[in-house]
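Quick note —
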Amino acid sequence: MDEIENADKKGGSSLLLMKYTRMTGWLLILIWLLANPFSLKMAWAGADQEYETAKAALTRFEKHPNLHKYRDKWFSVISRFERIVKRHPNHRRTCDSLYNIGNLYMDLSLISYADKDRRAAIQAFEKLSARCGDTRLADDGLYWAATMSVKLGEKNRAKELLTRALERFPKGDMHAKSKKLLLELGGQWPLPHKEMTKRTAKANSPHPTEADLASSSGKLIQPSSDVVRVKTVQVKTTTESTQLKMVLSRFGSMSYGSIPATNGSPRRVYFDFSETKLDPGVPTEVAVDDARIARVRLGQYQDNVVRIVFETTPGAGKFHFTNGMSPPSATITFNNVEIKGATAPVDARQTDSSSDPIANLIPSQTRSTSSRDVKLVVIDPGHGGDDDGARGASGTREKDIVLKLSKRLKRILEKEYGIQVVLTRKDDTYLPLFDRTDIANERNADLFVSIHCNANRKRKHRGIETFYLNNSTDRYSERLATRENQQLGKQVSDLEFILSDLSMNVNVADSIMLADLIQKSMVKRATRLYKDTVDRGVRRALFHVLLYARMPAVLVEASFISNPTEEKRLRSEKYQETLAKGIAAGIARYADKQKKLARQP
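Predicted structure written out below.
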């Protein structure tokens, strides 16, 4: 017994000694840091340095859209910011890093179309809001988390996030957008007095709920997992197209692919709807037998995946995918081939994803709707008529410059590259924004390119940039899009755009590629003429003129008309010709890439 007591005493003494040593060690470290403030500064500088390195990697990645189709390239950038969050949880750069992580996952989801990427974006944005509530980014996190929830079909979750943003940040820069989207979703603001009192009491409760704890810790609150239901299916045929329309319980995610005709079997185009089930009574086969489609088959391809297969005829040409808002609906339309008398589909061969190793790396929706020759391009000279667009200091009108530039572009494309061009306007006439893409859609164009001149109240701004359609978290791009969208009579709601990505994402990868090729080609030629040309790169923004284009579509900002030097250049025929040749060469390079893709076995 004495031996045991002695051992306990020795053990207790050892434990006290260890605790004392540990406390002394921390105390010595604290004293050393206070005595050496430079070392403390270097520790924080390390986080800043890591962030600048990660930001540089992000910038390089953004400048190479051809890398965007590989998931490992995305995660290579994301992991840099995640390391900062893990290593420096209390540093101000953690907030910036979480914001970048959320944006990267959000952008990735626009190409991968994967719910897991959307949920990862939500998680990052919610962590941002929870950890960085005293920064200007906190309400941004709640707003973008809400938009991702809408895309997941989780309306109530989105309303909760938006309501929280409005409550916590009444003077935040996202207040107006959050309120607008909340009202579009059927929410209320300001809240009724009874509901506001209830929420205030809950917020002041000493016993937080599980949801509160999840939110405050930045963990993702798992939303509803209700599957999408296919309620009805209708097929409509005309002399011009075959159209299948499905009414859904809510929007979900979609991917598609194609299997070429072999051994007497027709070419088949299939669409997979994830987390979806067929309602009882929905037919599993529809006999169409028109000039484009022989029949349509529907089935539960997997337990939670509905597959729709179109067996095409040689008369089937381009197809496109659109959706309606009320009720939620998805429509797949096949048009006629473009060349009269063709005995085979104009769509070039598409490989079966089961045998193509490249197809296994690239999500099916990032490939072109069809790999074919670019035969028809619609060029849209911006503004016109009563809408002058921007004005330079010397009175130069944007509408005049872009019309001249577009006419030169038409001539070059037709004469040098054999590509047919249609102009949305040939003279100084007014044309509503949506009428411009209607022209491209009705003509079944392969590409849509809108030509503009940039402007900024700060006249020092200069350079060339090219945009593709997408929501932007960049304040500059948002302001520019707002200016270009001003002529639109009916405003497109944020909700309408968020839900439109089912149709938009079919072309987003090609739009990015087209924008990148045009931008590089323009800058290359302009630099030969003027060494001080500024390359502002490829950006994204919500330009309404691109919203409903059913083909790859971009908007070119060909220099700043508000900059006196660039205004003078824009008036020059030599500079106009240089820019037109640059845009044309970019389009031709894109067309050449499509031909090579079509020739792949």
